[in-house]
Amino acid sequence: MKIGVLGSGIMGNGIAQVMAASNNQVTLVDISEEVLKRAEATIRKSLTKLSQKNPSIDPEQVLSRLNFSINKQDLQDADLVIEAITENIEAKKAVFRELDQLCNPKTILASNTSSFTIKEMSDVTERADRVCGMHFFNPVPLMDLVEISATNETSGETIQTAERLVNQMNKESILVRDTPLFVVNRLLVPMICEAIALVEDGTATPVDIDKGMKLGANHPIGPLRLADMIGLDTMLHVQESLFERTHDSKYRVPNLLREMVEKGELGKKSGKGFYQY
Ligand SMILES: NC(=O)c1ccc[n+]([C@@H]2O[C@H](COP(=O)([O-])OP(=O)(O)OC[C@H]3O[C@@H](n4cnc5c(N)ncnc54)[C@H](O)[C@@H]3O)[C@@H](O)[C@H]2O)c1
Fold first, then answer.
1. What is the CATH number of the domain that holds 201?
2. Residue 159 region, left (φ>0) first, then alpha (ψ -120 to 50), else beta?
3. Whole domain around residue 213: which residue ranges?
4. pLDDT value of position 207
5. Catalytic hit among 46, 111, 115, 135
6. Is residue 276 part of a domain?
């Protein structure tokens, strides 16, 4: 298939890579040549690393199926375009409007958004039956799941095409009704926030909470170590948006999370979170 990926950040690069590695012709679009040069280098490095473990991967062959462009016009005859730009709803609506005008009427438009509903984007198009969510996980080449989300208007054919593509990438999909945070983050983020609330009220230390969930619930990594890896600023943003959207007190933001973000304790990336790095 001809696949377009809009946004060559952490997620867009990974999505373009796995789409090209599964024999699709991919065009990756971003706003500057400089960003795209970095994207190409990132993808080459990732493919080279993967090919050392799996010699059937030929980095140059995969790269030959990838085009890099700063021109959205190059997406007009794609079978499917996945939007993976910055998490900003006005920016996302603007590109959905633009892609709807630009692309072939048959093109499916998908979004990799984490916190917005797909309906917010499909509502600005005239092809709501061909809009769905395809939510990948970071790092895309290593994570096996894609959440496919459907609004009431998404057609069965659109869902089947998305499912087929996921299978082709040797990944698995789950089908989710279009709701804030879909399934995985909807369960994961409040659980992490509850763990933060337990630190805040002195129930247990981060080390013991993580040990509890690893040994008692068989999680491969404890919730607070995971929060540090995701970034506490991202955690705050996501839980805040969940609370704003649902007004459900079970999604309240723990004070400790706000305080740590205000102090610049963002987790691994800042050198300090619940642990020191
Ligand atoms: N990072 C994660 O772990 C993760 C996981 C799942 C989903 N997501 C979602 O994926 C999307 C992208 O996240 P990311 O972490 O890759 O972001 P990022 O900031 O790494 O990359 C975003 C890219 O989009 C580009 N961009 C912005 N506006 C654009 C436009 N109008 N046209 C073309 N390109 C544009 C930017 O130049 C940048 O390269 C977001 O919706 C995010 O919520 C992120």
1. 1.10.1040.10
2. alpha
3. 185-270
4. 98
5. 135
6. no
